[in-house]
Amino acid sequence: MIDFRKVIRSFRFAGQGILDLFRFENNAKVHLLIAGLVVAAGLYLQLNRTEWAIILTQVGLVWAAEAFNTAIEKLCDFVSPGRHPQIKAIKDLSSGAVLILAITAVVVGLIILGGRLLDIISLGNQ
Predict the structure, then answer these.
(1) Is 73 among the annotated ligand-binding positions?
(2) For 3-43, what is each residue's pLDDT tens digit?
(3) Is residue 92 part of an annotated ligand binding site?
(4) What pLDDT band is residue 115 in, cutting at 50, 70 and 90?
(5) Which of 53, 69, 88, 104 has CB 3.0 to 4.6 Å from 94, enough for a Cys bridge?
(6) GO CC: one term (predicted)?
């Protein structure tokens, strides 16, 4: 039998983690701001369902990567508060993963939003 109280409690913990991510982590705030701008641009450009699905997936991937990166960094700081070359390598790899996803998200955004802008410009020139 499913214990719904445990499920609800675990959702509450997860929700607190999301709130803490955007409340305390500067890079997550930057990603949140950019996501807001992308959503505003998508609304203005009237993206279709498929384009929204792709854009929102990219946003979610970047946010999730930022959350994993933050968790890894906090764990590293807890395990090894001082400087250590292996901890530095772990943190660099983790933040590099976020950068890879962020760059990919920018490229996807340029393809979708840029394509829409080009369509609007070309219709205006006819």
Answers:
(1) yes
(2) 999 999 999 999 999 999 999 999 999 999 999 999 999 99
(3) yes
(4) very high
(5) 69
(6) membrane
DSSP state of 82: S
Rounded Cα distance between 21 and 11, Å, is 15
The CA distance from 71 to 38, in Å, is: 26
CA distance linking residue 27 with residue 66, whole number of Å: 8
**Is residue 91 a known part of a binding site?**
yes
Task: Tell me which residue of 109, 117, 111 sits closest to 59, measured CA to CA.
Answer: 109
User: Catalytic amino acids?
Assistant: 66
What are the structural domains of the chain? 26-124 (1.10.287.3610)
Backbone angles phi, psi at 125, to 5 degrees: -85, -5
